[in-house]
Amino acid sequence: MALMDIRVYGDPVLEKKTESVKTVDDDIRKLVADMYETMKAAPGIGLAAPQVGVSKRLCLVDLSAGSDPDRLLVLVNPEIISEEGYQKAEEGCLSFPGIFGHVERPMRVKVRYTDLDGGTQEVEGDELLARALCHEIDHLEGVVFINRMSPLKRRLVMKAIRKLRREGQWEHRPGEGSEERA
Ligand code: NI
Predict the structure, then answer these.
(1) What is the Å distance from ligand 1's center to 36 Cα?
(2) Between these two residues, 171 and 142, which has the higher pLDDT value?
(3) In sequence order, which residues have a C-beta less than 8 Å from that of residue 103 and are 6 or more positions away?
(4) In which band, very low, low, confident or very high, does the pLDDT at 182 lie, cut at 50, 70 and 90?
């Protein structure tokens, strides 16, 4: 298993819609193992394939941030099939080091996906799990969380990013920051 580089905002792969995974094979399972190590080291509660430079419809969600392997969800070709309610809370993203902001999400979602054995599964989540699922599935559509912030907040965030970039600070550094990022 190997740690992968987490791409930060500005890398075009983050704003590109991903391609569906055709077959769950050993290459996919190897990618998932490497992504899991990378998410744990970050640490984060989710990681989508584009964040490690792979434009495939595949993501991980793990509210334990890698501390409990039983809680890992590996979602191949996930689709939100129902959603209800509304929540607004602060989010972070491993591709936006040091940036946090409030984002509106559904309170509860149901997601259909393919598992690592090629079977069809469904998962239902509310609150933080719903938020993490929506955040990751957005990544697979090429949508990053600042797109869902208010225009004013987004302007402030863009200003902060430009400053960090000028200072050569715009990169992901493993082990830094909060586990609430995805
Ligand atoms: Ni993210």
Answers:
(1) 14
(2) 142
(3) 88, 89, 90, 91, 131, 135, 145, 148, 149
(4) confident
84 is catalytic: no
Domains of the chain: 12-166 (3.90.45.10)
Per-residue pLDDT band for 177 (boundaries 50, 70, 90) equals: low
pTM: 0.96
The rounded Å distance from CA 132 to ligand 1 centre is 9
* Predicted pLDDT at 152: 94
Catalytic residue among 136, 141, 176, 179: 136
What's the 141 CA to ligand 1 centre distance in angstroms?
12
Question: pLDDT (tens digit, 9 = 90+) per residue, 61-72?
Answer: 999 999 999 999
